[in-house]
Amino acid sequence: MSPVPIVPTRPTRFASGSPRRARLEFAGASGNFTLSKDAAPQRPTALAAQMKPPSIHPIGPIKPINPARARTRPLASLSRKIERGQFARPLRAGATIREFISALPEMLAAAELRELARRIAAARRAGRSFLMLTGAHPLKVGLSPLICGMLRDGVLSAIATNGAVIIHDFELAFAGRTSEDVGAGLGDGSFGMAEETGAFLNRAARLAAEEGKGLGEVVGREIIRARLRYRDTSIFATAYRIGVSATVHVALGADIIHMHPAADGGAIGKATMTDFHRLVAVVATLGRGVVLNLGSAVVMPEVFLKALNLARNLGRRVDGLCAADMDFIRQYRARLNVVERPTAGGKGGRGIALTGHHEIMFPLLAAAVREELARPVRRRG
Hints:
By secondary structure, the chain is of the alpha/beta class. Helices cover 41% and strands 11% of the residues. The chain has a domain at 105-178 and 188-374: Deoxyhypusine Synthase (3-Layer(aba) Sandwich), CATH 3.40.910. The protein has helices at residues 46-50, 97-102, 108-126, 137-140, 144-152, 163-175, 182-186, 195-211, 215-225, 235-242, 265-283, 299-313, 332-340, 358-374; strands at residues 4-5, 23-26, 33-35, 130-134, 158-162, 245-249, 290-294, 322-327, 350-355. The strands form two sheets. It has a six-stranded parallel beta sheet, with helices on both faces. Strands 1-2-3 form a three-stranded antiparallel beta sheet, with no helix packed on it. Helix 3 crosses helix 14, helix 8 (195-211) crosses helix 11 (265-283) and helix 11 (265-283) packs across helix 12.
């Protein structure tokens, strides 16, 4: 390969007193370039020497605009987005939850919370599906009893979780406590190394793989079989007992049980792949139904998008979907993959994004759904 000339910023004279052209030489198979030994920098090119900063032309003094001739209109002829009828109403002491929900202002998140509750209740009455996607945080802030209640009441048709959820669900069912102090154990390597947690859940993964079942189903079954003390608030045990789909979608290496000596990546992968195919079957039934993503920033929005695409690819019509995200901060993937993309394309979908702490927002939603279901159904005609 011929040497490639380079242009430094100023010339340098060597012992001979004459400047020499600098070269980059190709070093054969190594693929590297080196500066030739006899190289000397070259003067800047004529083009570079001629470059000057751009000229700035002043625009002159700015004259203020006189609004004397501006046209006005009567207030009644102009649009306004807020009216008194939308205002919040004061509550008396001892008010009911129905009165509290009804007293919320009819705007923005308060209006969308009530709309989501109405849509979930309507899906329940019409026999349409309501799928909840969730991360582990809702369990760590004490929402398991509410989720189990919605499962038992037939409001939730299915749940789908990331891999961390089975960890907290098991520990709460087994010991009644969970959520480790990561910093306290990271220094000596004891973080995440709970014997019972790793042994129980990795055994469940092996059983699921051997039986050709999903990980969520077998975790729920084994919690019941082991008669764990607090199994009544286990979402997987509850789902298994009433025959509702509960799937687990694992990112290998992301969960503490993957560090355990009993972890079998092949078994975990097979069991969670079975759960993915079960989730696709659930998503295929979501036409005019509801999906809620509760606190999963990455894994469940990504899994849901693929499940939805595969269902539609196989010819299932999933239109008219109400897709909602509820988290304490707005997340990129949850917004795009749950709220926006699945409801786009003129298919009659509705996207709702509610921002707030799970331990406040989800109990409000659960209560609002219960109140909606308790209302008399209005018959048309």
